[in-house]
Specification:
The complex is a heterodimer of chains A (302) and B (528).
Chain A: E1 4-5, E2 14-15, H1 21-46, H2 54-57, E3 59-65, H3 71-81, E4 88-91, E5 98-104, H4 114-123, E6 127-134, H5 136-165, H6 168-192, H7 198-224, H8 229-261, H9 264-299
Antiparallel strand pairs in A: 1-2, 3-5, 3-6, 4-5
Chain B: H1 2-25, H2 55-58, E1 60-65, E2 70-72, H3 82-91, E3 101-104, E4 114-117, H4 124-134, E5 141-143, H5 147-163, E6 170-175, E7 181-188, H6 192-200, E8 205-212, E9 218-226, E10 230-233, E11 246-251, H7 253-266, E12 288-293, E13 296-301, H8 305-313, E14 321-325, H9 329-341, E15 357-361, H10 363-392, H11 395-419, H12 425-449, H13 458-488, H14 495-524
Antiparallel strand pairs in B: 1-7, 1-15, 2-4, 2-5, 3-4, 6-7, 8-9, 8-12, 10-11, 11-14, 12-13
Helix pairs in contact in B: 1-11, 1-14, 3-4, 5-9, 10-11, 10-12, 11-12, 11-14, 12-13, 12-14, 13-14
Classes of the chains: A alpha+beta (302), B alpha+beta (528).
Chain lengths: 302, 528
């Protein structure tokens, strides 16, 4: 009987017996605390837990094909074409001369309407590849709906987990890990300046479903199998790490290709899942595991 | 028999896959049992498959907006006539035409007596005050219009889109889970501004007469002809020579005599005809016929000598033809559409600061998205395959895993083709998510059945498979729970993502993942 787990892909070996529960849990809890701090700071500064994108604040996004000799000239043309300054101009890597130009809707009028922007783009000789226009009050409603949806999904998942395991500590371990799996990507979004979009909301919901898989697997092996704790953990880890790494690989390449092609929906789903799945590796095998071990060896005895 | 019993899951999967392939590739004529493509005509197939593509992938314009208006429920007006209620309420509202105030009795669509105002910039408080001032008891006053108005608006918008010749355009009412109502307009292959021009205005058309009274002041006799008063509305005509672009119309028989009297009384029809100078010198002109759209004068005209004499003699009522002139041909086309489709009972809230959203994708961008998202999906699959091969090192474990996961996507594609669900980017994201969860579950199965020790008997296999399935079921349940808010809430375009992820998980748990278990057993056990 040893505490060593042999991970797939010849990854490092982990000897869990060398670390106390306190040590194991300290790292993910510290990261969670920092993440919560980042979100709280963003909330204090901007009034929202994460910077909402055009879909939630209202605004106009144009995808334009610009006929210009080089990038700087194209940006210059775009800058001159519109009667208001764009909030951002991004180029699409895989498509030459294509730019995504975003305008925020402004309070108090004065800002050009989407139709005016459309006309200005046409007059400047740009080819309009796509237009997205969201009314400000519609955006605000959507934001409430989206955050409510994430909350509801999380609550539903928590209830289901408790119903499945019917033991407090292992269930709450899953719920805390899943909570951290969502909070960490949101904090990273704030730090990296990624805006909340429909794609990132979808990804957060998907994380709730995805990230608990490895936790459920771990709990299942420890709770419902005969055999000693470390053997169960080792076998759960072999499978679980493979699962997460497979998903992670898919999401990393999806994020890269979708970004190159300028498919924002897929890119934002991908990036949030990359963050979340990475966080999940840490949370499952450090936080969830330490709680389980405490419960198995000390909590039950009391 | 033993073979069938042992492999029924695999056989079932193959049957479902064949069905999906049929739904995907069979020529439309053969699939008469299934519903025809949403567009309505069987001839349109996007490429080699029966898949329908959404606007994101095929190009076009989508507008989603609520209707402008406020409605008071539980208004107590007893048996008073609706017209008199409307007049009384209008009198208390500043600058709102009576046509924008509608009283409605309780009916199948409308639980209580209601008064609705569809003019812009009327707040719920203003309507409440107006009702109080007019002496009507009332219940809640809310934003939004009545169900009847929404239905009429959808019908008028549909006919506008048809009249404008925008084929494949659809208009529908969508209700969010929070009880808000939106009108959703989708027009494939059309520019945003064209569609917006068409649906943005109320499009109410009427003819007024502008004339000089005996004491010398100018007056307007309103609505001598309205939208419903025409029996036939011709196609818009290009102007020729001195004739401006116009829409030829025939006035309905019951209205013709009344109109004739109006033009004679006001002097529009006088011997020698009239020349209108309304635009240049409104205080020194012959009487004019004013064509008004949404209250704005679009054209002012006098009457030709020949028409005037036929009006005066009364001959005109035998053949009550008439032309409505416009400044240019495109105005004539819009006028014809407005006349035929009728006026919108309420306006879409898509202006500045409005609640609407609109999007446009050019057809070439749609093609690019189609190709690029396919490449993205394929690369994701390749990445998954690479990881799985590296991990297991055995083609007989890894290969069926990839094939099984892909078969889930084939089933979903077949399903989408069969019900005509339009594929767009969010659905493709759903497919990628399904491959992800699918492979995860297959890894659980593979690891579980291959754990230490040979799988000598079917019994060992079965017990291990069952253990693996508990985890898979639990994981599937959490995914479904997590996705269901998105499937129900109408959060923009993400419904397709949630629906297909959930369907994929269900298909996976019921069909493909058990079949993979059978395949693995056939490859790994010794006893058969």
């Amino acid at each position: 009987m040893s505490g060593t787990s042999n991970l797939p892909f010849d990854l490092f070996e982990v000897d869990y017996t060398r670390y106390s529960n306190r040590q194991l849990a300290a790292v993910p809890l510290a990261v969670l605390a920092i993440a919560l701090l980042v979100i709280a700071a963003t909330f204090a500064l901007t009034g929202a837990p994460v910077d909402p994108g055009v879909e939630f604040t209202g605004g106009t996004e144009l995808r334009l094909a610009v006929d210009a000799p080089n990038d700087a000239a194209a940006r210059d043309q775009i800058g001159q074409a519109f009667s208001t300054t764009p909030e951002s101009i991004r180029s699409v890597a895989a498509a030459d001369n294509t730019y995504i130009v975003t305008f925020e809707s402004q309070d108090g009028g004065g800002a050009p309407t989407t139709t005016q922007l459309e006309n200005q783009a046409e007059q400047a000789g740009f080819e309009i590849r796509s237009i997205d226009a969201v009314g400000p009050s519609f955006g605000a409603d959507t934001q409430i709906l989206a955050l409510g949806g994430v909350g509801l999904a999380f609550l539903g998942m928590s209830i289901l987990v408790f119903a499945m395991f019917r033991t407090f500590v292992p269930s709450i371990a899953v719920v805390i890990s899943a909570f951290s799996d969502i909070v960490i990507p949101v904090a990273l979004m704030n730090l990296l300046g990624i805006e909340l979009s429909l794609g990132t909301v979808a990804a957060l919901l998907m994380l709730i479903g995805y990230s608990v898989d490895s936790d459920i697997l771990l709990n299942n092996h420890v709770l419902r199998r005969s055999g000693d704790f470390y053997t169960s953990v080792a076998s759960a880890m072999r499978t679980g790490v493979t699962m997460t790494l497979t998903s992670l690989a898919a999401m990393v390449v999806m994020t890269i290709t979708a970004t190159l092609f300028g498919i924002q929906l897929l890119a934002s789903i991908g990036i949030v899942l990359v963050f979340g799945l990475t966080a999940d590796l840490m949370n499952t095998y450090m936080l969830n595991l330490s709680l389980l071990r405490w419960w198995k060896f000390e909590g039950v005895a009391r | 028999m033993g073979f069938l019993r042992d492999n029924w899951r695999v056989i079932l999967l193959v049957v479902v896959l064949l069905g999906s392939t049929f739904a995907l590739f069979a020529p439309p004529g053969l699939t008469s049992g299934s519903s025809p493509p949403a567009g309505g005509d069987n001839a349109t197939r996007d490429g080699p498959t029966n898949l329908q593509f959404g606007l994101e992938l095929s190009g076009g314009t989508r507008i989603r907006a609520p209707l402008v208006g406020v409605t008071a429920e539980e208004v107590e007006f007893g048996n008073e006539s609706l017209a008199s209620v409307e007049d009384n309420v209008t009198a208390e509202l500043d600058g709102v035409p009576v046509t924008d105030v509608t009283a409605q009795r309780a009916g199948p669509d409308q639980p209580t007596n209601a008064v609705e105002v569809t003019a812009e910039n009327v707040s719920t408080q203003q309507l409440a005050n107006a009702l109080d001032a007019a002496g009507y008891q009332h219940g809640d006053v809310r934003e939004g219009v009545t169900e009847t108005t929404r239905r009429q608006t959808v019908a008028v918008l549909e006919s506008k889109i048809n009249e404008a010749g925008l084929s494949g355009g659809t208009v529908q009412q969508v209700t969010t889970s929070t009880g808000e109502h939106f009108i959703l307009i989708e027009v494939p292959g059309q520019d945003r501004s064209d569609v917006l021009d068409l649906v943005d205005s109320r499009g109410s058309v009427r003819i007024d007469i502008y004339y000089q009274t005996e004491n010398g002041t100018y007056q307007t006799r309103e609505a001598v002809l309205e939208q419903g008063d025409f029996r036939r509305i011709g196609a818009a005509e290009q102007g020729e020579g001195q004739f401006p672009p116009n829409v030829p119309v025939v006035v309905g028989e019951d209205k013709a005599e009344e109109f004739r009297q109006d033009v004679v009384e006001t002097g529009v029809a006088q011997p020698g005809g009239t020349t209108c100078r309304y635009e240049d010198s409104p205080n020194n002109t012959d009487p004019c016929l004013l064509t008004k759209v949404d209250g704005e004068v679009v054209y002012a005209a006098g009457m030709s000598p020949s028409l005037a004499s036929s009006m005066l003699s009364g001959e005109w009522t035998q053949d009550p033809q008439f032309i409505l002139a416009t400044q240019n041909f495109s105005e004539a086309q819009t006028l014809a559409i407005n006349l035929r489709a009728g006026a919108l009972p309420a306006q879409l809230d898509i202006g500045e600061g409005g609640e609407g959203t609109s999007s446009f994708i050019s057809p070439s961008q749609g093609e690019d998205f189609k190709r690029d998202s396919l490449i993205t999906g394929l690369i994701a699959v390749l990445a998954v395959s690479a990881v799985v091969f590296v991990r297991y090192g055995e083609a007989k474990v890894a290969l069926p895993m990839i094939v099984t996961a892909l078969s889930e996507v084939v089933i979903l594609l077949g399903f989408a083709a069969a019900i005509g669900y339009p594929i767009d980017l969010s659905v493709i994201a759903g497919f990628i998510a399904v491959i992800g969860t699918g492979v995860d579950d297959l890894i659980i199965i593979a690891d579980e059945v291959m754990q230490e020790g040979e799988i000598r008997s079917r019994k060992i296999f079965q017990s291990r498979f069952k253990k693996a399935f508990w985890v898979i079921g639990a994981a599937a349940a959490t995914t479904i729970i997590a996705m269901s808010p998105l499937a129900v809430l109408s959060l923009g375009d993400l419904q397709g993502f949630a629906i297909f992820t959930i369907l994929g998980v269900i298909a996976g748990v019921l069909l493909t993942r058990p079949a993979y278990g059978d395949i693995l057993r056939a490859l790994l056990t010794d006893d058969r």
